[in-house]
User: Which sequence fits this backbone?
């Protein structure tokens, strides 16, 4: 068996790299569409300030895009280095979406990002706007294919296990593409990226307005960001409801853990606002609940129940016991008896519980003789820790509500034309800058930690997915990643702050050289 330390270190390394990567990704997703909006106004009106807005925010987009690409490339290599068996197991499934991500999305992004920066004097207004739009489209297509792959890990549809190759093999590409989990994750994630882009522009514009710098430039940027951000945060909240519903259908364990729901409650279940989680005794010491809400979100009905963790554990116990003969049959077929008709019949009849039987591999190599104590340990493993999921979900939702309040207030004052005279609103916008990043990272923690103990939900346990390599190698590569990525983050922050401080004057047009205290400039 692979050591627990090796598995945990491999998980930490992948978590570190993806968390660094997702500092850059959401801003890329959102900022590109704000650039499209600004450039569209420039094409329609011919007013040069809108061109300068597109170029300035595009400069910050370019810095972020370059570092996002740099940090993203290494993640796919980790499939082969740290997760070798996982790569073997899912290669037939992951090959198509990851290849399409490279061919359709990355090539589109890399081609049109060059045209965006170097095509201002070589393309017509409409042609350049088309290049900017295709750049934004490529960025979002990249997210689509990645989230289709991730969605399949959460809900492995359109595939079946081949015991002869020990791989999952695709049976329907359409099912994988239109997987409800994947589609819900995609629209929820890109909407969160749009909120990030809007918050970035809103916050920096608020900074300029507080300092009375680049006033006309900042005023227009603030107005665009307020409107775009309001539409985006409303989408996030609506699509978050859809994500909750698909999770309730495909991952009942995650939903129950997020809600701290130990016991199955009468339908429709209430939503727990806060609770004192008692992991040791597997109960809540106390809780405050809003009636009916969870049942409506999780089932879209008034009479369908959502199973609690105790009921889920009981089901998992039976599935683990039922999976033992499936594991034994698989080992018989793989160990020189491929024509054993009885073993094949057993495997075929119990294939749905094979993954649960494999949970015992964490505690014994001799699954056939697993003791009741080992089975109970596997049952405990089948449920993620409740406390981190419970509070992470509430942090994410709480930040979403705060951002909704900000964008509603900002949009209201832009309609009235009073936002410049509301220092409290501008400071609120400025101090809210980190909120989208925190919410997105917490959301990814919910999605990935809440899936444990599986890399492929219900099929492949995490402890069987890792490569059997030296622990010292993982420590070394983890330290290298942290040092290198921290350096890249420092570079990103330095360049961003440098050009934000310079403002649109960094464009070198000369239009912003005068003092902006009057709010006027030569446009």
Assistant:
């Amino acid at each position: 068996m692979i050591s627990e330390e090796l598995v945990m270190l491999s998980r930490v390394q992948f978590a570190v790299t993806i968390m660094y990567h997702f500092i850059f990704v959401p801003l890329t997703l959102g900022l590109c569409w704000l650039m499209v909006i600004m450039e569209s106004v420039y094409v329609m009106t011919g007013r040069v300030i809108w061109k300068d807005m597109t170029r300035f925010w595009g400069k910050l987009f370019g810095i972020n895009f370059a570092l996002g690409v740099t940090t993203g490339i290494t993640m796919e290599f980790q499939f082969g280095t740290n997760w070798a068996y996982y790569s073997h197991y899912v290669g037939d499934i992951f090959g198509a979406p990851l290849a399409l991500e490279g061919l359709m999305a990355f090539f589109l992004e890399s081609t049109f990002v060059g045209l965006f920066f170097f095509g201002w004097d070589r393309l017509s207004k409409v042609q350049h706007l088309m290049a900017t739009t295709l750049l934004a489209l490529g960025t979002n297509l990249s997210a689509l294919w990645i989230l289709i792959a991730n969605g399949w890990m959460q809900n492995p549809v359109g595939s079946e296990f081949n015991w002869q190759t020990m791989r999952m093999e695709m049976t329907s590409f359409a099912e994988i593409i239109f997987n409800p989990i994947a589609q819900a994750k995609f629209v929820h994630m890109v909407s969160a990226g749009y909120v990030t882009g809007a918050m970035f522009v809103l916050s920096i514009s608020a900074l300029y307005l507080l300092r009375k710098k680049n006033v006309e430039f900042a005023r227009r940027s603030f107005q665009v960001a307020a409107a775009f951000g309001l539409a985006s945060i409303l989408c996030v909240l609506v699509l978050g409801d859809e994500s909750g519903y698909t999770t309730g259908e495909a991952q009942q364990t995650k939903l129950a853990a997020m809600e701290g729901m130990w016991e199955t409650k009468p339908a429709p279940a209430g939503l727990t606002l806060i609770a004192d989680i008692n992991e040791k005794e597997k109960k809540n010491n106390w809780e405050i609940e809003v009636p009916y809400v969870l049942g409506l979100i999780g089932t879209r009905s008034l009479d369908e129940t959502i199973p609690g963790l105790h009921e889920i554990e009981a089901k998992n116990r039976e599935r683990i016991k039922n999976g033992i003969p499936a594991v034994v049959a698989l080992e018989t077929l793989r160990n020189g008896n491929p024509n054993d008709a009885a073993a094949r019949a057993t495997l075929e009849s119990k294939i749905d519980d094979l993954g649960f039987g494999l949970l015992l591999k964490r505690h014994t190599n001799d699954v056939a003789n697993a003791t009741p104590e080992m089975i109970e340990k596997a049952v405990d493993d089948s449920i993620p820790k409740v406390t981190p999921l419970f509070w992470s979900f509430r942090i994410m939702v709480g930040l979403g509500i705060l951002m909704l309040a900000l964008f509603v207030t900002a949009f209201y004052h832009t309609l009235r034309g009073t936002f410049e005279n509301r220092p409290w609103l501008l400071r609120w916008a400025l101090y809210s800058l980190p909120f989208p990043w925190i919410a997105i990272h917490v959301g990814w923690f919910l999605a990935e930690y809440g899936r444990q103990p599986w890399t492929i939900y219900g099929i492949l346990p995490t402890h069987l997915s890792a490569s059997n390599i030296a622990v010292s190698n993982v420590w070394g590569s983890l330290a290298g990643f942290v040092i290198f990525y921290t350096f890249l983050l420092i570079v990103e922050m330095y360049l961003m702050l440098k050009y934000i401080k310079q403002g649109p004057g960094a464009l070198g047009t000369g239009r912003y050289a005068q003092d902006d205290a009057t709010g006027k400039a030569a446009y």
